[in-house]
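for the recovery benchmark. tokens below, seq after
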């Protein structure tokens, strides 16, 4: 029997063979089709219960199986899994279209939608009905038969291309290594970084030290290595992913994806892909996003230019460098930061042992939301690195299963993300609790040291854990509105707001303890962390805005078929935000996985958008006390538990009492003069 087709609660990783996925997904699609047919062919008149609600409860088995498969494809992939992904993605996209373009089904959904004002629905039911109707109309239900066929074709091509895009980036990432055999070339690198590189070399059966393009290897090298030529080599290799003359080149894929998305939007009656996407976001339309980005740009650019000039002068004074390049950025920034604040990231690391930081984030969740986390060993995992927990509330009620996967390895993509293996929903009066996972790429323990995090890695862990809380505390009736199923420009609020606790003395005292002596992090370090928080914030903001503007340039474009060169188009988009000279061999778009593989197309601005919300929200906490139960309960009740059951601004105002203003963000970033 195929373990994926049996009833299971937590994912049965140990029982599943790679060969089980295809037959299980095929079978789950078929059984989901039957569920859909029952609703579409129901002889009774369409009602909210027999159509809208019934539809939301379908596809449970398929959802569970595909979540296991695609989560593994990101965190523990193999050539075999990648091949299956290529094969099943068109099946899933075809099936989605079968549902969305099912005439009888849509007629029933529309019939309920048309009488919505007479049904006496509560806000959550109204939202379910509205989102369901829009999901059909935005996926072509109102099109004629020819256009429906065209839409199917476009969707199948798009799902294949985004998979290929991601595979190419991962392949280029894994194909490169900087192999050093002369110890002199390690000058400037801290002992922990050298040790990790030695371990990597040993794993690959080589002498010396190996540095890769994985973040825990790449970032410290760019920050500390004195050898400018080696920094240049590594930086160019990093920026060349998907942009080399090899089988992994993504240029044609970028142009194809952009053109297909545009065609799809036009087919559905929208001027551009951005118009299509933003209709369902807080921002609502491209003009509003562009105005938002341009407004922040006007405030950040003068500060960024001042910071850049200072950094350039500093590098010249220190090493006689006349023109600062991208590979000098992290290196001289770190040196200048150390000089200004007498704060060295390496001095901080011993206070951020991974296990302590995990314990810290759990304690903070307990103080705010009365949750307890117990590590357990009876839940199956897909890799030995994964930790598993059961989460309960203060009354002992079971809240969630939590998986955490912290270290890089081959077959795991770069970056950090939160995901889920089982959604929360209420079925037949039973509140089914979610299974939530976070995946990160933090420095591994070595033979002599535990995993010690940089402060950046600490904020990353808090960020992903903020998403996890949004998933774990979900408390809605319908799974399609549960947890992180919210507008994309609202989804980053819970994650970004939690990062603020990393800068607070009261919170740091809970977990920032020296891994050898157990002493608390000295308070002067805490002050320096706070002081230096807005260091180079102008340049950082400009960088984020450049990504948001590039995304909008690709997806707000109303004639993308005229674009012939990815590199030239990108350079024009970066013109207003560029500080460093361009590198001819490098291209951002060909490895911009957020927008060409993840779900951020026409949505990258949402990081900054959510920063406005998070700064405004945290200001409220600060005013009342960062562990104030009343404010925490309001945030839990109106934001974390509510998912997408109401419009985000309604939920936010219920928590905060007013609409957010960018002033708190600009003040925090030191951009208000």
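predicted aa per position
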């Amino acid at each position: 029997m195929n373990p994926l087709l049996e009833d299971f609660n937590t994912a049965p990783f140990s029982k599943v063979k790679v060969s089980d996925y295809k037959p299980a997904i095929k079978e789950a699609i078929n059984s989901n089709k039957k569920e859909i047919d029952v609703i579409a062919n129901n002889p009774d008149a369409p009602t909210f219960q027999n159509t809208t609600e019934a539809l939301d409860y379908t596809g449970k088995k398929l959802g569970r199986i595909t979540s296991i498969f695609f989560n593994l494809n990101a965190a523990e992939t193999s050539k075999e899994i990648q091949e299956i992904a290529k094969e099943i993605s068109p099946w899933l996209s075809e099936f989605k279209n079968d549902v969305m373009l099912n005439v009888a089904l849509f007629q029933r959904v529309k019939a309920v939608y048309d009488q919505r004002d007479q049904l006496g629905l509560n806000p959550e039911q109204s939202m379910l009905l509205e989102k369901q109707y829009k999901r059909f109309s935005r996926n072509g239900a109102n099109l004629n038969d020819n256009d429906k066929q065209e839409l199917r074709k476009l969707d199948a091509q798009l799902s294949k291309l985004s998979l290929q895009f991601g595979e190419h980036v991962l392949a280029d990432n894994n194909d490169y290594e900087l192999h050093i055999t002369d110890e002199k070339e390690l000058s400037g690198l801290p002992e922990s970084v050298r040790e990790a590189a030695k371990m990597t070399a040993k794993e690959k059966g080589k002498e010396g030290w190996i540095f890769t393009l994985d973040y825990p290897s790449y970032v410290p090298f760019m920050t500390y290595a004195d050898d400018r030529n080696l920094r240049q080599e590594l930086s160019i290799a990093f920026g060349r992913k998907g942009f080399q003359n090899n089988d992994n080149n993504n240029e044609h894929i970028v142009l194809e994806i952009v053109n297909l998305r545009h065609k799809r939007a036009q087919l559905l009656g929208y001027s551009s892909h951005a118009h299509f996407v933003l209709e369902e976001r807080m921002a609502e339309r491209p003009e509003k996003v562009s105005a938002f980005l341009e407004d922040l740009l006007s405030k950040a650019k003068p500060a960024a230019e001042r910071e850049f000039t200072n950094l350039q002068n500093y590098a010249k004074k220190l090493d006689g460098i006349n023109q600062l390049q991208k590979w000098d950025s992290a290196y001289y920034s770190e040196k200048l930061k150390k000089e200004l604040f007498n704060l060295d990231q390496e001095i901080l690391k011993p206070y951020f042992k991974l296990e302590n930081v995990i314990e810290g984030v759990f304690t903070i969740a307990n103080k705010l939301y009365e949750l307890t986390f117990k590590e357990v060993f009876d839940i199956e995992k897909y890799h030995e690195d994964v930790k598993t927990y059961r989460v309960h509330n203060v009354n002992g009620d079971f809240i969630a299963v939590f998986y955490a996967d912290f270290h890089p390895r081959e077959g795991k993509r770069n970056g950090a993300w939160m995901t889920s293996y089982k959604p929360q929903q209420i079925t037949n009066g039973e509140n089914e609790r979610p299974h939530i996972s976070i995946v990160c790429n933090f420095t591994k323990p070595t033979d002599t040291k535990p995993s010690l995090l940089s402060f950046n890695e600490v904020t990353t862990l808090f960020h992903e854990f903020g998403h996890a809380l949004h998933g774990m505390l979900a408390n809605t009736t319908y799974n399609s509105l549960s947890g992180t199923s919210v507008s994309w420009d609202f989804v980053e609020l819970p994650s970004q707001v939690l990062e603020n606790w990393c800068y607070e003395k009261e919170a740091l005292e809970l977990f920032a303890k020296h891994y050898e002596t157990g002493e608390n992090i000295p308070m002067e370090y805490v002050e320096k962390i706070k002081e230096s928080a807005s260091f180079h914030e102008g340049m950082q903001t400009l960088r984020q805005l450049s990504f948001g503007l590039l995304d909008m340039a690709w997806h707000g474009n109303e004639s993308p078929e005229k674009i012939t060169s990815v590199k030239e188009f990108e350079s024009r988009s970066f013109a207003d935000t560029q500080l460093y000279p361009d590198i001819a061999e490098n291209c951002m778009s060909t490895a911009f996985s957020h927008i060409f593989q993840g779900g951020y197309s026409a949505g990258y601005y949402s990081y900054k958008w959510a920063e406005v919300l998070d700064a405004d929200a945290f200001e409220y906490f600060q005013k009342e006390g960062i562990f104030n139960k009343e404010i925490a309960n309001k945030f839990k009740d109106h934001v974390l538990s509510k998912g997408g059951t109401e419009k985000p601004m309604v939920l936010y105002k219920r928590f905060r009492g007013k609409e957010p203003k960018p002033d708190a963000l600009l003040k925090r970033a030191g951009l208000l003069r």
